[in-house]
Amino acid sequence: MRTKEDRIFQIIGNIVMIILSACAIIPFVLLVVSSLTDNDTLIRNGYSFIPEKWSAYAYEYVFKTGNSVMQAYGISVVLTMLGTVCSLTITTLLAYALSKKNLPGRGIMTFIVFFTMLFNGGLVPTYMNYTNTFGIKNTFWALLVPNLLANGFNILLMKSYFVTGVPDEILEAAYIDGASEFRTFLTVALPLAKPIVATIGLFAGIAYWNDWNNGYIYLTKRTDLYSIQNLLNRMIQNIQFLSQNSSNISNANVGLSSIPSVSVRMAMAVIGVLPIIIVYPFIQSNFVKGITLGGVKG
Amino acid sequence: MKRILAILLCIMLITLSLSACGDSSTNGGNSSTADNAGSADNGSNGGSDAAAEGQNDAAAKIIAERKESGVYPTVVMAYMNWSGSPAGLTRIQEAISEYTIEKYGIQVELEIMDAASYSQEMTLMLSSGEQVDLFNAITIGYTSSVNKGYCLDLEEEDLIRTYGSGILDTLNADFVDACRISGVLYGLPQQRDMAIGMFGVAIGAEYLDAIGFDYNSMYEEGEEVIYSDFAAIDSIFAQLHEAFPEKYVFTPQEATLSQGPEVDAIGGDTYGVLLDPINSLEVSNLYSSDIFKEFCTMFYNWNRAGYISADALTDDTSATSHAKAGNAMAYFTATKPGIKQQESNLCGREMIVFQMGNDFMKSSAVAAMPWCINSGTDDPAAAMQILEGFYTDPYMSNLLCWGEEGVEYQKMDDGHITFADGVSAENSEYYNNVNWELPNQFIAEIWEGDELDVWERMDDFNNKSTKSKALGFAFDNSAVASEYTALYNVYQEYVFQLMYGYVDPEVGIPEMVSKLEAAGLQKYMDAKEAALREWAEANGVN
Amino acid sequence: MGGSKWGKLMRMRKLKRFIPLYIMAVPGMLYLFINNYMPLPGLVLAFKNYNARKGIWGSDWAGFNNFKYLFATQDAFIITRNTILYNLTFIVVNTMMAIAVAIILSELRTRGKKFYQSAILLPFLISSVIIGYLVFAFLSTENGFINNSILAPLGLERISWYIEKKYWPFILVLVNTWKNIGYNCIIYLSTIVGFDKGYYEAASIDGASKWKQITKITIPLLRPTIIMLVLMSIGRIFYSDFGLFYQVPQNSGALYSVTNTIDTYVYRGLLELGDITMSAAAGVYQSLVGFILVLGANLLVRKMDPENALF
Questions:
Q1: In chain C, which among 115-154 make CB contacts under 8 A with chain B?
Q2: Which of B3, B493, B502 to mutate to test the interface with C (most CBs of C within 10 A)?
Q3: Strand pairing category for C48-49 and C60-61
Q4: pTM recorded for the entire structure
Q5: What are phi and psi of B200, to 5 degrees?
Q6: Domains, chain B, ranges and CATH?
Q7: pLDDT tens track for C25-83
């Protein structure tokens, strides 16, 4: 009886997941197809899965003109790896400290962290802070530091995991054995927290890869520091701005025509997502490994 | 625990006070004033024949001082282009600096950004006190820049007469005055087309050929546009639709509202306009006017006849892209000298341009994108001298507009210039296509495709056009800003459906008007009218 | 406890033990201070009439003037209502779906598991603007997939999707779930995977069905996570995903009454004004409301389930 129910569950579960996965992938297929569609056909017939005319022009255009796409890839990769490592370190250390129930001042510190999730100084003060006080405009730091290096959400999430998933008894056992606080953290707590570390690492990595805001605001001259998403989104912001302000900017039409067309935007989107899609399965196997290795309790 | 909190608070307070100090110091700045005692003239200013001896000498003197001391100030100049910081920026900037160090003892840095980025970035840079000395107020808004204190009074301590007199000689005095706000000169206009040829239509030549329309015979002497009327265009549209049922007759655009009917949207927005701008200063509601109703009805009929795509409402592809793809056959556009060539280039095919309205200069035309000096600049004299250079010195203007000779462009035998060998619009390292934004494109080279006398024709165009009575009026709407945001949201909600003909004007217009009124239209219009009357009195306009 | 001198010594020794922990906390707290707290005084901009010549601190006070545009308008009710209703719906729908998917994924034993997880994460990685274009591909009146390939063959009339309001609440919820489900379920999945397998073994020995195991073991164990995530979402209830509400409806005016949220209203209003004080005011407004709501919700949770309160 148990195994039959189990099998039904497995079948239903698989069906549901197949449907969900299809829903997720089909639009993406459309994205790839439209990036390979001839632009005029796109304008005439709209988006379709089987276009009238195929064309790799969009990709040619992206790789040939303007800022080097390969350079942007390089920046994105370095930024993501560096950022993820730094972010994980900072977040994990703080989360662990906050998870110790008997730490004096814990309540206030947690509140201080949480408060940052609710209140934000705003764009101009943040900009002033980083540009005038710290002078990171037009440098690599401007991509790495603002807003992404650590945030309250990740810290509290990890803290919660430490509290519920890493029992005090195990830690106590380590102390009794004479281990220092830091050693306990490294050798006992961290391995047990692998799932959440992998999760937060994933979140941080995605946030860095997808971020275009930092580059948009802080990089005005260092076009060699543009990340992939920055390139794409600049173009799109520009298009929208011009379409909306066409009555105010007398030659907006000229500007709009000089910006690459729909198919190019699609190509850039594909280029932006592709590395993650390729890399993610590899990360995921470590994810799963970490999860299964770190779980033994009791 | 309490201790930690106390320490944190202390640090916060200290930082607070430190950052406060930081703000005030960047906005102080030291301005170097000219000593008026005339002495040795180094003969470097170009085109300032009419300047008084004393002023010319002051300018020359300060240049000599710089060169002697060996300390060259840097002037940062910011403006907008279509595609962002060009690859050749550093090289062009250095070429300009080489020249300006020799001529003025000043270095120049350029900041060039694409439209959306420019708007945001300039707001950030100007409000945070970063160094940007010269900037164009396009997309930021001239009146709001003045309001927020970003712009320097150009006549303060005789700044422009002393260091920039060449500018005043070059520009039309009326246009300079049109940039005054409450009598103070905060910005300068550039040399470009100020007037607009209203209600123009561009139609692909091949489609006209297909319906047998003889456009060649309709041109008047020396004109590049065909003057026509709505009846003629309506009949052309009908014929085009019949001949090419699978194509859209035209692609509607938002700009048609401001480039079509001869109405002056004073103050830069359509909430309260001059319906008869040549003759009257009465401020009326555009959306309850007959003009608007006729306009919407015309498009409604065309929409119902199937001339417009059902997706036009959400489409952000430009009309010229549609024309280029062969998807649509026509679109509305403003006209100016050189329009036929421009549109034909954009659409990749020959376009025939018709014009149904007059050539008209709106009140906000002149001050649409003025050049301003940052009120927080450290060295206003240097900024003014560089600006004068771009207005009067062909070499400087050429570098700014076209790049370096031999690298970006080359001279042709007939006096035009064109791309250098191996360079094209796609791979040029400096091809901004925004010369109408730069101080003086009239003294720079002429690109292939434009007539060699295009600037004379441009001047002619500007001078011969009818002008709005309110020319030079600028409206500061900060007191009614919350009404403005509400009005803008209503505008965005309704105007496209009406303008593109998706909604019956009989139904849609009253709905829009009542919502506008609920959003505070009357209050906004009253404020605008009061400001207009004040301006009219101060300027002797009636 | 104990004599004052002895007590002090004990406390000092105890504090010494905590020093390594404080050191560990320093990088994070320092960063939050630099990134979040240092710009915070800039919120004062919301109450000022900013003039660049006078700087932030020298500019005149404007009282609540900069907030007027958020309230004194007929749209104020609409944008607030839309923001809150959508967010509540999102919280409920997304939480339920994320938990459901996480449970399914944790129970599945096929190799395809990895594939499923990667696949559903995909939509999250695509930017909102592109999603707007993809939705347009489906909903375009002329060429859209739905109009052309579904409605037309069935003999039904085409729908002007971007003009008809009534479909959009569903469309937006659907798109939002589609986009976020892969991301949201990861948190739950990693939590579930960390549960003590012993509970499940004991339950199945006792003859409990799978469904019973899920409802009686998994979900109660997930409660702390659920509560925490919901509380955090409540804190952001006045914010909205700008890309979703602006790009996906392609900024179509006809849909405003169902797609306009506080963020899009502010954006539209200030696009041309470029007024930093008014946008600062909007930020203060949204933060304050979220803050009050979270405090309230947290108090509620503390009364009912003290261990799971955020603070």
A1: 136, 140-143
A2: B493
A3: antiparallel
A4: 0.85
A5: -95, 155
A6: 43-192+365-445 (3.40.190.10), 196-360 (3.40.190.10), 478-539 (no CATH)
A7: 999 999 999 999 999 998 898 998 888 888 888 888 888 888 988 887 778 889 999 99
